[in-house]
Design brief:
The chain is an alpha/beta fold. The chain contains 15 helices and 10 strands.
């Protein structure tokens, strides 16, 4: 495992941080998995295996797995594992309507995690709606108070909005870390590379989420993109390339990966044994650019399957609709994904049931015009 200095905080963090948003789920034959029902035994084994093999950064959040991720992480960090890691979780700022709510959620999370303090406490998914609201409620004063009381150590934030707002937030407080979305397809999206540099220049460590864009850079790689990767002098998997491109930046302190089985975890651990800054040649970087261009020509909706948009009041399985729509384009598999879409139709979860209430668009951290894209998907996949 490679480690990187975490700003000026005086310690090193593993370049690979374990994200706990996509833990193993319970399975029932012939039934879709329920994201809130974690397979606790497998999840605990996975988290502890990561820590035993050098990972010392564990990231969770209040809403992950329907509120159950923090509970399972607490169980995994028993028996001495808590002392081996820096623990990050996030304040659900969209639920806060008063200053007292900040304390209420922090205390609830401390209890769920069964800890006396949280290392990195993030204001979760800040955007143009939540930031001014919680700032007016006194969230920065709350962070100062929480640090002084010993309940948290390093005030931080995660971000999903436009770059000017990111810079405003960076300059508003003495942050100890920021978490942004970045991958080979999103270098100009949200905070992007410019935001990464902006934070790093101000001494704020940068943690990367969605390095594989919700797994889309790892699954069923199109033949033309695989052929581009195959031109490299050094043979690497697409997952390896995605992580290595990020790790090439000295400004990146940690890359989060949400693994849901031991095989994925072992592969990530192997990759992170050798990722170091400034290792990629100019020819390799040009190769990544070609892959990015090839992908961008195929993707219909920039959905990462974060599930913030569900449950939909009308029952539409929004991430699944977009998955089939993207897969039909990216992998040239229209008929297969039309068939997959019919399963949603039979379950009354297809896009035709959208009532255009807009609740999904308010929740989407990617700012996707979901209503418009649902209509596009239904036209392609069902001809309506």
């Amino acid at each position: 495992m490679q480690y990187r200095e975490f700003g000026n905080l005086g310690f090193e963090i593993s370049a690979f941080g374990l994200g706990c948003m996509r833990l193993p789920l319970q399975t029932v034959p012939n039934q879709a998995s329920d994201p809130s029902k974690i397979n606790e035994q497998e999840a605990i084994e996975l988290i502890r295996y990561a820590i035993d093999h050098g990972v010392n950064y564990v990231d969770t959040a209040y809403p992950y797995h329907g509120g159950n991720s923090e509970l399972v992480v607490a169980k995994a960090l028993k028996d001495g594992y808590r002392e081996k890691v820096k623990l990050a979780t996030k304040l659900p700022v969209w639920f806060a309507n008063s200053y007292e709510d900040f304390d209420k959620y922090l205390d609830e999370q401390l209890a769920k995690l069964e800890v006396d303090y949280i290392d990195f406490y993030l204001l979760h998914a800040l955007n143009k709606s939540t930031w001014p609201k919680i700032k007016a409620l006194g969230v920065l004063e709350f962070l100062d108070k929480a640090v002084a009381s010993g309940k948290i150590r390093y005030p931080s934030f995660s971000f999903h909005d436009e770059r000017p707002l990111f810079k405003e937030i960076v300059d508003a407080y003495d942050w100890k870390m920021c978490q942004i979305q970045l991958n080979i397809l999103d270098e100009d999206y949200q905070a992007g590379l410019e935001g990464m540099h902006y934070a790093a220049e101000r001494g704020i460590p940068v943690v990367i989420m969605e390095p594989l864009k919700g797994g889309s850079l790892a699954r069923s790689i199109p033949q033309d993109i695989q052929e581009i990767w195959g031109e490299a002098a050094v043979s690497r998997s697409p997952v390896d390339w995605a992580f290595r491109w990020l790790g090439n930046f000295p400004e990146v302190n940690v890359m989060l990966s949400g693994v849901n089985n031991l095989e994925q975890l072992k592969d990530n651990l192997r990759i992170f044994e050798t990722i170091v800054p400034n290792e990629l040649s100019q020819e390799e970087l040009k190769l990544v650019t070609r892959v990015k261009e090839a992908y961008n020509s195929k993707i219909k909706v920039g959905c990462t399957r974060c599930n913030y948009c569900v449950p939909c009041p009308a029952g539409v399985a929004i991430p699944d609709v977009f998955l089939h729509y993207n897969n039909a384009s990216i992998y040239n598999a229209l008929e297969e994904n039309k068939s997959n879409y019919q399963k949603l139709v039979r379950g009354n979860k297809d896009a035709s049931h959208c009532v255009e209430c807009g609740s999904c668009e308010e929740a989407c951290p990617q700012s996707i015009p979901i209503i418009e894209k649902l209509a596009e998907a239904d036209l392609v996949l069902a001809g309506r």
